[in-house]
Amino acid sequence: MHFLVTNDDGVDAPGLLALAQEIRKLGRVTVVAPDKNWSASGHVKTMNRPLRVKEVILEDGTKAFASDGAPSDCVALSMLGLLGEKIDCVVSGINPNANLGHDVTYSGTVTAAMEGTISNIPSIAISLDAPEFHTGPLDYLAAAQVARVVVEKVGKNKMPGNVLLNVNVPYLPFNEIKGFRITRQGLRVYRDELVRREDPRGRPYYWIGGDAPTGVPEEGTDIGALNGGFVSITPISLDLTAYDCLEQFQSWNIGK
Ligand code: MN
Known about the structure:
Elements: E1 2-6, H1 14-23, E2 28-34, E3 53-57, E4 63-67, H2 71-82, E5 89-95, H3 103-106, H4 108-118, E6 123-129, H5 141-156, E7 163-170, E8 179-182, E9 187-198, E10 204-216, H6 222-227, E11 230-237, H7 246-250
Parallel strand pairs: 1-2, 1-5, 2-4, 5-6, 6-7, 8-11
Antiparallel strand pairs: 3-4, 7-11, 9-10
Bound molecules: manganese (II) ion.
Manganese (II) ion (MN) binds next to helix 4.
């Protein structure tokens, strides 16, 4: 198996290194990641400027590629022939913060996996639910081990088309994690606030501030699973059609 490991926090992020080291136990790993932090950048396709790629050496001495493109660009570049060889699986992460509910539409971690899914390659996004006020370096070991367990299962089973796995891991040592739950997206509660300030020249600028999002820890959801100390695995469909609503909108009789 040849794995493409990427992330949205940048090629220097410790979560990427931990993930690459653990996935290397399952096969060959190529790391192609952005050269800067693209967190909350959504699904990007860079079309109006050239993309550059350079070789870099990670902290453990292994080779990686850094691109000035977005996470999804890194996956697209790799799929379209940058590496000159086929990729069997895309693993994106480990993001330091959970990607739950509506977060998946913002997340560079998840949208990198989406890009793999669009190319029909099994793709997994991994995020760690680090405590909000954690200081100092995070321990990614348990999340990396969880990633290996899930990726191994993906290798042994058939992934449905048009679906990626969004995995969120509680911030616990591996042996204290309660287990794995297949979940649906829960309801995120955003607490964004618009901060308006003035720059030194008297012109206003705006900053989307506020507290970190919370969520409704309903049973069966990603938020509920994390809340109970379980790994959450949410199958995410790239078909966003609201099937339940088709009839309702047809009844509007909009026109011919
Ligand atoms: Mn991130």
